[in-house]
Amino acid sequence: MKNNFWEKGQKHCAVITGASSGIGMEMARALNKIGCFVVLSGRNIKALEKLREELGAESCAVIPADLPVVKNCIDFYAAAKKYEPDILINNAGFGIYGEFTETSLTNELELIDVNIKAMHILFKLFLKDFVKKDRGYILNVSSSAGFMPGPLMTTYYSSKSYVIRQTVGVFTELKAKRSNVNVSVLCPGPVSTEFNRRAGITGFFKGITAKQCAVYTLSRMYRKELIIVPTIKMKALITAGKLAPERLASFGAYVLQKGKKRIE
Hints:
The chain is α/β, with parallel strands linked by helices. It contains 9 helices and 11 strands. It has one domain (9-262): NAD(P)-binding Rossmann-like Domain (Rossmann fold, 3-Layer(aba) Sandwich), CATH 3.40.50.720. The longest helix is centred in the middle third of the chain and has 29 residues, at 105-133.
């Protein structure tokens, strides 16, 4: 997992949003294992404190943040900046399942605030700092969903498409000016996390573990890969989806989503 970034004798610090469970938590564990100081953020304070106790109080900090609120994003950035991070794992996000006419507008607006606005704010603020130092890594967490239409989860799929397009565009800007800052976007398929539970569904695909996803992703991030897709199977599905006519791809996604069951 190590590369030249870790051979400069510098102390490294990673800020991780959505660190109280799933991929964010496993990212924190993996980074901690290779000597990186981690700043943990999320809503579940008890889970964050438990993780801090596991990793060691001397090697991590907890900054709880309710990211749907713009001011909270800015306040969180100001607090995390004090640790002089050179890695940002922009991981906070959630999904909503159901037909567009039936899902809650309030919940959808909160999803947009977290998956798009909070991601955008933190991406911009931390990136400006990294560019000044001319070093660092930013990983924005999207989904394979961002490459395709999303019937029955339209708002979620749309939000993840934004994350991909934003990251790819910024990547090109950085390369054009020969910046040493790297940005990547993670686009996994199913991962065994609390995502489905919060979305109110149970899936019928068995995903990879959050630990597998985290370890694979970090190794690719250090190699400065732009779009990171764990598993060959998922890469093939994304390629097939891109080649299929839009209406066919959308219908296929509908059939897959329809196979999920609501959690009562």
